[in-house]
Amino acid sequence: MHSQARTELPAASPGRALVERILATHHVEARRLLDQIAGTAAELSSALPPNDPANAIIHDCELLREEMLAHMAREEQVLFPLIIDLEHNGADEGDIGMLFSPIVCMKREHGFIDELLARLCAGANAAAVPGDAGDCVRRLVESLASFAAQTAEHVRIENDELFPLATALVPVAR
Ligand SMILES: [Fe+2]
Ligand SMILES: [Fe+2]
Hints:
mainly alpha, 4 helices, elongated
């Protein structure tokens, strides 16, 4: 219905706007790049002998995909809706634990993903395999570099903009 007076409309929602921007840009792009990485890793898998050490790259690509998809799902299903709810309906001291626990968890996961990605990029850069496998590794290096750059900005926005904004929604008991 459109019967609300102008003064009764909800106030601006910077948290919601930021969440929507993260979902529409970073989560979409992360899933696209993870699909690209998985496709190239599958090609590499079929081009490598089973005992080649470069198979560790494929394992880490699978781990990265699992961790990042699960991480984004937790943000989308738990933390982001909570931030929007607290922003819209208000928060009190009792909401501190409910909000801070997932934020701490998401920050820890950001750190794990960053370490995994650094190991993966270093491993792919150092891999020396010939032929089709070498071509796959070169494409993986490019995709991983794109994913790393995109993830750095994705994590920066969440850690440095969204989480402080969400934390400030809860009045601190004095
Ligand atoms: Fe995210
Ligand atoms: Fe995140």
